[in-house]
């Protein structure tokens, strides 16, 4: 694990990169990394996340700045701009049921090729997917997702990169941390090693590649 | 009584102590307001919370304690938080006793459409498909008609949310159950006759002889 500046952390991200971003309607999203991506004008990004938040929050700001090529998300209902760009063909949006999306990411991070779920069977979500029967029940094969970068928001990080999360800001964060080639973390609190009790570490240090230094 | 209040009050009667329940946005959220005093139910928010409480007083909200609509909430004593994988494990894994969702259409075999109106409203399904496919019991809370047209239809014209039939639909006019692939009228709304429900419903209803009025 390395500590780096906010500026350096975003310099690592090339145009066209795929990003998994934590957060649920902007709660638990690393806002300052989002702001820095906009400042450095990174383009053609693919974002994999729960939703595109609202116009002026979290991933919504990336949408508004037109920095995305594709979004793989479960919900865009609170961001009219995502819907507008999708309808106008400016942004490719893959809508995935929320439970399926998080499991595809989990599979990607846990070394699995995919998961079998009954969610989506017989709906428009099934289109183009393989049906697999297990003990007489039909399931959809949903394939694993991985990304170039995970942008994680933690409540607390120690100097080694052990992470803990706060309340409903946890959501996708610990799951995406497992599923990306490079894991960049922004934390509300950075503390010496030993402050977080082992039982309270949710994401173990070796998973984290970069911890963004606090200003 | 307002239609939304009738619906929320009636559905509140389906809850019992200790249940794990997920309430959707809109009318379903209001169900929590009509529980008997002191009854403890575990409310789940799919963003990762069991023990979802009401809205905090002004100045007491916390930015990392929100419901699935992103609104600040309180956490009740005994609450727990977890990541989205566990949240949907609870939903799909047979741990969620009941989900209450809004609806656009329900067809006479109980199939629900509630997530999109193609080319008009494309918000994404969020957790709706997992909830309807996975919860032990599914109740739809919706008004009986929209713009004069029955929302309980012969066949959904909108894209369905799941092939799994819902268990119950509660409107201001009726409680309808789906058993053996057929819509059955169980109760009528306050001051509403069975004949009025049948007239207001596009779907074919099984109408038993004695149909009680909802007790609210």
- Biggest interface in this structure? A-B, 47 and 41 residues
| CATH homology superfamily name of chain A | Glutaconate Coenzyme A-transferase
The run of helices and strands of chain B is HEHEEEHEEEHEEEEEEEHE
Low-confidence stretches of chain A: none
Alpha-beta classification of chain B: alpha/beta
Entry summary:
The complex is a heterodimer of chains A (215) and B (216). Chain A has 215 residues and is of the alpha/beta class.
Give the SSE layout:
The complex is a heterodimer of chains A (215) and B (216).
Chain A: E1 2-4, H1 6-11, E2 18-21, H2 31-39, E3 45-48, H3 59-64, E4 68-73, H4 80-87, E5 92-95, H5 98-109, E6 114-117, E7 131-134, E8 137-143, E9 147-158, E10 163-164, H6 173-176, E11 180-191, E12 210-212
Parallel strand pairs in A: 1-12, 2-3, 2-9, 3-4, 4-5, 9-11, 11-12
Antiparallel strand pairs in A: 6-8, 7-8, 9-10
Chain B: H1 3-12, E1 20-23, H2 27-30, E2 42-45, E3 49-52, E4 75-81, H3 84-92, E5 98-101, E6 105-107, E7 112-113, H4 128-134, E8 138-141, E9 145-146, E10 149-150, E11 152-153, E12 168-170, E13 174-179, E14 182-188, H5 194-199, E15 205-206
Parallel strand pairs in B: 1-2, 1-5, 5-8, 6-11, 8-12, 14-15
Antiparallel strand pairs in B: 2-3, 3-4, 6-7, 9-10, 12-13, 13-14
